[in-house]
Amino acid sequence: MNRRVLLQSLGMGIFAAAGWPLAQADAAADLQTAIIRDNFVQVRKLLQQGVDPNSVDERGRPALVKAMQLESLRVAQELLQAPGIHINAASPAGETALMHACIKGHIDVVKQLLALGARVNHPGWTPLHYAASADTEHSTAIAQLLLDQHAYIDAESPNKSTPLMLAAQYGSQAMVQLLLDAGADVQARNELGLSAVDFARRSDRAFMVKILEQAYQATRRSKASW
């Protein structure tokens, strides 16, 4: 091998190590495939080659949000350690990595995201909505973590549904009790005029209806008397 060929070969090797020969589109596609497969080794290589950890897929989902939605937890860990990662990046639907971690019950990731500055309160659906609608082993503990971080307990979704309403229909009795004990407004109604009691009725959860009706009656103001 002559000197010129040798230098070209060495040069290409340096470029390859830096990730420069990779077409941007190909690199982005490789990242999306690695997320789907939870191939953290490939993600690590791509990040080392300079691929943007905040790349979005064809649906506009940031890499970290997609990883948490698909429960590609090993990939998520690689992304969380990537310089420049946007912890609070959201999908077009307004979903963040924290919201997906909450609804899927990944309490360790929730703690990690909170420590990194993940937002607990923002307009629209919130992490507390997502935690309240879940019924996993760690759902109530996750909700408590959010409340400890000053999550607004009566946060309103776009149609003004609150975390308590979602818990009444989808969550556990423990979740409903946690929110009630923390001061959730049992009398609140959404844009359809539905209360938490109505949400419980919609899912035929008689035991939940009873709990919420009792809480509702307890918070009603008695008529003034002389």
TrEMBL record:
ANK repeats (start-end): 93-121, 123-158, 159-191
Keywords, in A-Z order: ANK repeat, Repeat, Signal
Keyword Methyltransferase in annotation: no
InterPro entries tied to this protein: Ankyrin_rpt, Ankyrin_rpt-contain_sf
Signal sequence, start to end: 1-25
SUPFAM superfamilies: Ankyrin repeat
Entry keyword Signal: yes
UniProt name for this protein: Ankyrin repeat domain-containing protein
Organism listed in the record: Comamonas jiangduensis
